[in-house]
Amino acid sequence: MYKKEIAYDRETRDYAMYLDGELIGFARTYHEAEITLDQLVFELLNGQYFQEAA
After folding, report:
1. Which of 10, 38, 11 is nearest to 24 (CA)?
2. pLDDT digits (tens, 9 = 90+) for 9-49
3. Radius of gyration of the CA atoms of the chain, in A
């Protein structure tokens, strides 16, 4: 399972997105960060499923 983390960055006034402890990028809002991380995890999980099935 992937560990998602969102942290507010006071310098940039953006939300830093982390996946398994690695910085993925920044989002303007917390909600945008949640959606982006959820989409990324979904794509990673689906990609792994299709690779294992092949």
Report:
1. 38
2. 999 999 999 999 999 999 999 999 999 999 999 999 888 65
3. 13
